[in-house]
Amino acid sequence: MGSILIRGAKLADPEKICCERLDLLCRNGVIEKIEKNIQDPADKTVDAQSLALLPGLVDMHVHLRDPGLTYKEDVFTGCRAAAAGGVTSLLAMPNTKPPMDSPALVEELLQRAESACCRVYPAVCITKGMKGEELAPFMELQKAGAVALTDDGRPVENSLLMARAMKEAASLGLRVVSHCEDLYLSQGGLMNEGAVSRELNVPGVPAASENAATAREIALAESYGVPIHICHVSTAVSAAMIRDAKKRGVQVTGETAPHYLLLTEEALRKKNADWRMSPPLRTDEDRKALLEALRDGTLDAIATDHAPHSEEDKADFYRAPNGSIGMETALSACYTALVKTGYLTLPELIAKMSLNPARLLKLPGGTLRAGGPADFALFDENRRWTVDRDRLHGRSKNTPFHGMSLSGKVVMTVCRGEIVYQDG
Ligand SMILES: [Zn+2]
Ligand SMILES: [Zn+2]
Q1: What CATH number should be reported for the domain holding residue 285?
Q2: Which end of the chain is more exposed for a tag (fewer CB within 10 A), N or C?
Q3: Which ligand is nearest to the CA of 179?
Q4: Residue 307 reports pLDDT greater than 90
């Protein structure tokens, strides 16, 4: 495995205030020391004078499509895309084929992931087969390696069943991640319901579909005194409800995704399905409210909801499934939307993309310290680049950032002490 010495990088770690030039030495997958002027010999030395050194990102919302839908992505191509984006740990969503609801499926995924270039943590179904009828065997799934519970892609429609899931999960210390959508309100919708959808005569998904579901999850968490994590928050009202609930002491946490920070429903005018996702891109007011919610701590995390689909799947705007890829572009997109605009500093952004998700899921990493895992990335804040869907590393190309110019780029990623990505 060997040793790597990073020289003179600017530390951008949310747990360390100092941003001075430091060296980092890792050996056999572990950080040995972070100091000025390390003199020890190393197998490889990297001059990082003009680069920021970050803990590897922890993406808590990734669809690897493995097993069953591997023509879209698999654990290996997904992890390659992760590495190219500075992601060293990811939470794999369970809406696979079959859905991840048995210990055997979890064990098989973890076995495949052993030779992938990023750490894979399984999320498993709340309900058996994601049918919303019967709870999955949480304790056995946890023993097999599951770290979170979700029926993501769908809500758990039965409120009583969801309450039971949240209580049982709380007793096991497992996090419940909720995809907030009222299917009666969203059914058939292809984009945000509003002025643009009416103009285009495209069926819409109202903000109420997400807001009503977020309100229910908060009500359950508050009534029973148990935690809930709201994924892909896309509306101003959902963010406001989470803010108010947090003030009352409700154990609610929230994440949003990079595309909601840079794009709006206006992007749907070209009727290209790569810009269709669930929840849909919303209005500019929603977008600004999410930036503010990240700044004031209402939203704890940014996760990509990386959702690969083949060209064929995405060919027809009206029939295509929801979702877009995002791991390779996430840090640059967020740096552009949040750091360049002054909403967050780089270490504050890294807290949302690494430290906080690691804490929420109780995973190692999220910060750089001697004795900790050698999972880190080098980021060039001065690089501007244009996203080209044909130059990305995953199996699918459905990025909503194609053609966009972004600030900052990951130039090297190290996971378990191995260089898993190098730019150029
Ligand atoms: Zn979802
Ligand atoms: Zn998702």
Answers
A1: 3.20.20.140
A2: C
A3: 1
A4: yes
pLDDT, residue 229, reads: 99
Whether residue 47 is found in the same domain as residue 60:
no
Distance (Å) from CA 304 to ligand 2 centroid: 8
The reply, when asked if residue 274 is annotated as ligand binding, is no
Is the domain of 340 the same as that of 256?
Answer: yes
Tell me: is residue 393 an annotated ligand-binding position: no
Measure 152 CA to ligand 2 centroid, in angstroms. Answer: 5
CA 295 – ligand 2 centroid, Å: 23
Q: Is the pLDDT of residue 19 over 70?
A: no
Same domain? For 223 and 259 the reply is: yes
Q: Is 232 annotated as a binding residue?
A: yes
Residue 23 assigned as binding residue: no
Whether the pLDDT of residue 3 is over 70: the answer is yes
- Residues 346-371 pLDDT 10s: 999 999 999 999 999 999 999 999 99
Full residue range of the structural domain in which residue 410 is found: 3-52+373-422
Q: Rounded mean pLDDT of the chain?
A: 97
Cα(238) to centroid(ligand 1), Å: 15
Residue 309 marked in a binding site? yes
**Domain count of the fold of the chain:** 2
> Residues 134, 11: one domain?
no
The catalytic residue among 23, 305, 375, 380 is 305
Mean pLDDT of 3-19: 88
Share of the chain above pLDDT 70, in %: 99
Stretch 161-182: mean pLDDT: 98
Write the pLDDT tens digit of every residue in 22-51.
999 999 999 999 999 999 999 999 999 999
Ligand with minimal distance to 91 CA: 2
Concerning whether 305 is annotated as a catalytic residue, the answer is yes
Q: What is the 3-state secondary structure (H, E, C) of the chain?
A: CCEEEEEEEEECCCCCCCCCEEEEEEECCEEEEEECCCCCCCCEEEECCCCEEEECEEEEEECCCCCCCCCCCCHHHHHHHHHHCCEEEEEECCCCCCCCCCHHHHHHHHHHHCCCCCEEEEEECCEHHHCCCCECCHHHHHHHCCCEECCCCCCCCCHHHHHHHHHHHHHHCCEEEECCCCHHHHCCCCEECCHHHHHHCCCEECHHHHHHHHHHHHHHHHHHCCCEEECCCCCHHHHHHHHHHHHCCCCEEEEECCHHHHCCHHHHHHCCHHHCCCCCCCCHHHHHHHHHHHHCCCCCEECCCECCCCCCCCCCCCCCCCCECCCCCHHHHHHHHHHCCCCCCHHHHHHHHHHHHHHHCCCCCCCCCCCCECCEEEEEEEEEEECCHHHCCCCCCCCCCCCCEEEEEEEEEEECCEEEEECC
